[in-house]
Amino acid sequence: MYQESNALVEFFRDAVQNNKKSQDAGRPVFDEKDFVRIQAPGDTNTVIVRIATDQDKKRFPKSWSAYQNGLDLAQEGTPLEQWNLISRSQTLELKHQGIATVETLASVSDANIQKFGPGFMQLRNSARQYLESSVDLAKATQAARERDEAFARMALMQEEIDALKAQIGAPKRGRPRKEPVEE
After folding, report:
1. Which of 111, 105, 70, 62 is nearest to 85 (CA)?
2. pTM over 0.85
3. DSSP β-bridge partners for residue 2
4. Would you give the distance in Å from CA 59 to the centre of its chain?
5. What is the DSSP string of 34-97?
6. What residues form DSSP beta bridges with 31?
7. pLDDT digits over 150-182, tens only?
8. Dist CA 17 CA 110 (whole Å)
9. How far is Cα 94 from Cα 111, in angstroms, rounded to an integer?
10. Could you report the per-residue pLDDT of 78-116, keeping only the tens digit for each?
């Protein structure tokens, strides 16, 4: 499942019995239909599975596009296994709930996180703090990169200024000008 629009989403194809064709043929006849599975992160009790509507396709365009192209969408974000603030058992428990990334954990609602038991609300809060600090770190890194680029441009401009000063102060080549003779 892929997280999109604050939901875990998966499109898939399944067979549905066509009652009219089955009655006419005197045997079960099935049609292939596109389905969607929608789940709130952390809530395995409320999973919506239905034939996909045009509204579903518009609401979850990345998931729909990937399904149409036969691609498996990887969860975007930091996998729980790569996050050093979580234990292996907590990772497995969260994955059972459909939560595979730190970003998905951070988006779990208060009502759903309380169902997980003690310690998971604090873990969700840690995930939120981790993501916020990552944004701050990314901004600081970008600012440092821009500062370094500005210093490099200033050094290059200073070299150009020094070169121009050297050209102006250098003696001119060619024949010297004649001074007007005074009589």
Report:
1. 105
2. no
3. 9
4. 17
5. EEEEEE-TT-SS-EEEEEPPHHHHHHSHHHHHHHHTTPPPPPPS-BGGG-TTS-HHHHHHHHHT
6. 16
7. 989 999 998 988 888 888 876 656 666 677 777
8. 40
9. 15
10. 888 888 889 998 998 888 888 888 988 998 888 888 888
3-state secondary structure of 173: coil
78 residue type, one letter: T
The token duo for 136 is: 């701050």
Beta bridge mates, 17: 30
Centroid of chain to Cα 81? 17
Task: Specify the amino acid at residue 7.
Answer: A
CA geometry: angle at 153 spanning 152 and 157, to 5°?
Answer: 120
- Residues 28-61 as b or e (16 or more Cβ within 10 Å = b): eeeeeebbbbbbbbbbeeeeeeeebeeebbebbe
Task: Report which residue type is found at 28.
Answer: P
